[in-house]
Amino acid sequence: MAVICPSILAADSDQYHHQMERIGRFAERIQIDLTDGQFAEPKTISPEEAWWPVGVKADFHLMYKQPGAAAEIILHHEPHMIIVHSEADGNFLDYAGLWRSLGVKAGIALLPQTDAVVLLPALDHLDHVLIFSGKLGQYGGSADLELLKKVDYLKRQKPELEVGWDGGVNNQNISELVLGGVDVLDVGGFIQEADDPTDAYRSLERIAAETGTT
Prior knowledge:
30% of the residues lie in helices and 21% in strands. Strand 6, helix 4 and strand 7 form a beta-alpha-beta unit.
C-alpha cells in the first residue's frame, strides 16, 4: 500500500515544534524539508535543530545547492533516508555510498523540468526517487499529473525502486497518483493546514488503501 508521509517545513523552532505536534501523534513516517535560502527560499531551521518522535521514520529532503555539509550533520540524527536534488552540486554517488554504509537510505529529487533519464547512471545506488511537483520551500503546490510519466519510466528501469511524490497531494488526486505507481506520498498543506490533521491523514490513507486494492 502507498505510504502517506506528512511533511514538516518550518522557518523557526517554534513553527517546527507546532507542525511536529500536529503530525507526530499519528504519522509512522515523515518528511522533514530543509532549505538553504539559496537553492530554495525562504530558509528553514538548520539541520542541527531537527528532531522527531521516537519510533517515527524520518526522511530528510534537502533543498540545498551544496547539501554535503548538511547531510553530514543529519547522519548523526540516524534518519531513515536523506534526499538531495539532482540539480544540486556535489557527487551523489559519493554521498550515497557513505549513507548506505551507515544504514541510511539514499534518494534523489527531480525538479519538474529535469528528465528522469539523468538518473540512469545512478539507479543501482538509489533507494528512492522523489518526483517534485511543488514550489521549492513552500506549501501549496499543485500536482502536475503529467510528471507521472517519470514514475512510469523509472519503474520500467528499476521495478523495485521506491518512488515518492511531493507537491499538491490531496483527496482529489491521490487515487491517480497511486494508480500511476507512486509509493510514497509526501503531504504538506493538505494535512498541516487542515482543521483536523488526523482526519486529513486518515482520509488519504483510506483512499490510498482502497485504490491499491482495485
